[in-house]
Amino acid sequence: LDEIQQQLVDHQGIQVSLPTIDHTLHCLGITNKKLSRAAQEHSDEAQWQFTLTIGGEPPEQLVCADKAAVNILTLY
Predict the structure, then answer these.
(1) Residue 42 half-sphere exposure, CB side, CA atoms within 13 Å?
(2) What angle, rounded to 10 degrees, do the helices at 2-12 and 18-27 form?
(3) Residue 46 CA to chain centroid, in angstroms?
(4) What is the per-residue burial (b if ≥16 Cβ within 10 Å, else e) of 7-23?
(5) How far is residue 1's CA from residue 10's CA, in Å, rounded to a whole number?
(6) What distance in Å separates the CA atoms of residue 18 and residue 33, rounded to the nearest whole number?
(7) What is the residue extent of each domain of the chain?
(8) What global pTM score does this model have?
(9) pLDDT at residue 55, rounded to an integer
(10) DSSP state of 46
(11) pLDDT tens digits for the chain (76 residues)?
């Protein structure tokens, strides 16, 4: 948290308290938990499979989105 606080001062010129940073990260679902070795290996395998699956597709045909980018009110 100290590093994030210092980066905010250095790059944005704003001073933010550590509790505020902690609360914001918590609200965003960001934790400091580390993956177990088995979970990391599974993640590496999933990334490899994903790369193999889309590797032949032209980049201009790929569209990336996440749930945060969807507004259900504009779909109707």
Answers:
(1) 5
(2) 100
(3) 17
(4) eeeeeeeeeeeeeeeee
(5) 14
(6) 18
(7) 2-74
(8) 0.43
(9) 85
(10) H
(11) 899 999 999 999 999 999 999 999 888 888 877 767 776 777 788 888 888 888 888 888 888 776 665 566 665 5
